[in-house]
Structures are given as structure tokens and as C-alpha cells.
Design goal:
This protein has 206 residues and is mostly helical. The chain has one domain: Four Helix Bundle (Hemerythrin (Met), subunit A) (Up-down Bundle), CATH 1.20.120. 90% of the residues lie in helices and 0% in strands. Helix 1 packs antiparallel against helix 2, helix 1 packs antiparallel against helix 4 and helix 3 packs antiparallel against helix 4. 18% of the residues are buried.
Length: 206
């Protein structure tokens, strides 16, 4: 009787231990799956942010091209064309702003990556320059609006003011393009690093 009872207990104990191991393994597998999913979302967020930076960079290049045309001394554009160019500048500036916001949202969702102090300073300066560009573009539009009904003497003063603001805008576009290049390089480097980690992660879990 004792031997029978001991056999039953041993069988029950073996079954319980087996189920416990199954449960622990299932929990470990589930945890690894959750970690992998979070890691993938982090990687995707950086890839998305980098894509938005590329969109912003393209618009900055367009702004630079428009600016160079507007300031070309060999071409005398009529006022309606200048106004159209100013509008194109504003449209591309808005695209840069939207791309910057979308990039920040992408990084904010699933990313806890710690950027270097240099990268943080670049980001702060990028936003500062973008804000100055927005203000300068608004001033340029106001100048053109005032010139429509200005007297000749006042119009000449506004022309000088316009040229000064255009020069300021050109410097800001150049600086923003340089910062954008460096920031994109930072994000691309992070994506490359995360992809390498992802390959190691997948290899270690096979």
C-alpha cells in the first residue's frame, strides 16, 4: 500500500514539476516576445524619424534653390513672381515644420534612447533656427504687402529692409541645412546600431 501511494505521489509530483517547467518556459517565451516587439517598435520609430528628416532635408534644399533664384542679380523677376516664390518658400518651410513634428512624435512614442549632449544641442539649435526662419518669412510677406500701396520713397526703404531680411533668411537656410545633415547622420547611425542589436537579439533567441 505504501509503495502504491509513493508511486502515485511520485507520479503527481513529476507531473506538477513538468507543468511548472512548461509554465515557466511559456512565461519566458512570452516575455521574450514582448521585448522583441518593443525593440522592433523602437527601431521602427527611429526609421520613421529618419524618413521624416529626409523629407525635411528635401524641402530645405528646395528653399535653398528658390532663395538662390530670388537673389540672382542676373535675373529681374516681376513682383508677382517674387510673391509666388515667397509663397513657395513658406510652403516648404511648413513642410519642414510638419516633418520635424512628425519626427519628434515618432521618437516620443517608443523610444527611450539617450542622445549625446552634442545631438541635443543640435536639436535645440535646429528648432531655434526654424523658428527664426518662420518669423523672417512672415516679415518678408508683410514687407511685400506694404509695398503694394507704398509711396516711391517708402517703397525704396522697404526694398532695403526686404534685402536685409532676405540675407538673414539665406544665412538661416544655410545653417539649417548644415544642422539637418548632422542630425540625420545621428539618426542614421542610431538606426544602424539598433539594426545590429536586432540581428544579435534574433540570433541569441534561435
Amino acid at each position: 500500500m505504501n509503495e502504491t501511494l509513493q508511486g502515485v505521489l511520485a507520479t503527481v509530483a513529476g507531473f506538477a514539476i513538468s507543468r511548472l517547467f512548461d509554465y515557466l518556459n511559456l512565461g519566458k517565451t512570452h516575455t521574450l516576445a514582448l521585448k522583441k516587439e518593443y525593440f522592433m517598435r523602437k527601431l521602427n520609430s527611429f526609421e520613421k524619424a529618419t524618413a521624416y528628416y529626409t523629407i525635411g532635408q528635401n524641402s530645405i534644399m528646395v528653399m535653398s534653390h528658390i532663395y538662390n533664384q530670388m537673389t540672382n542679380d542676373d535675373i529681374d523677376f516681376p513682383e508677382p513672381v517674387i510673391s509666388r516664390m515667397l509663397q513657395d518658400l513658406n510652403d516648404n518651410l511648413n513642410t519642414v515644420q510638419r516633418a520635424t513634428q512628425e519626427s519628434a512624435l515618432a521618437l516620443g512614442l517608443y523610444t527611450d534612447y539617450k542622445f549625446s549632449d552634442e545631438a541635443n544641442l543640435l536639436g535645440s539649435r535646429y528648432l531655434d533656427v526654424l523658428g527664426q526662419m518662420t518669423l523672417t518669412a512672415q516679415v518678408l510677406k508683410l514687407i511685400k504687402d506694404q509695398q503694394e500701396n507704398a509711396f516711391p520713397q517708402e517703397s525704396a526703404r522697404l526694398d532695403r529692409f526686404f534685402d536685409d531680411e532676405m540675407e538673414k533668411l539665406g544665412n538661416l537656410i544655410t545653417e539649417l541645412a548644415a544642422i539637418s545633415d548632422r542630425m540625420k547622420a545621428v539618426h542614421t547611425g542610431v538606426v544602424t546600431h539598433l539594426r545590429g542589436q536586432m540581428r544579435q537579439y534574433e540570433h541569441s533567441n534561435k
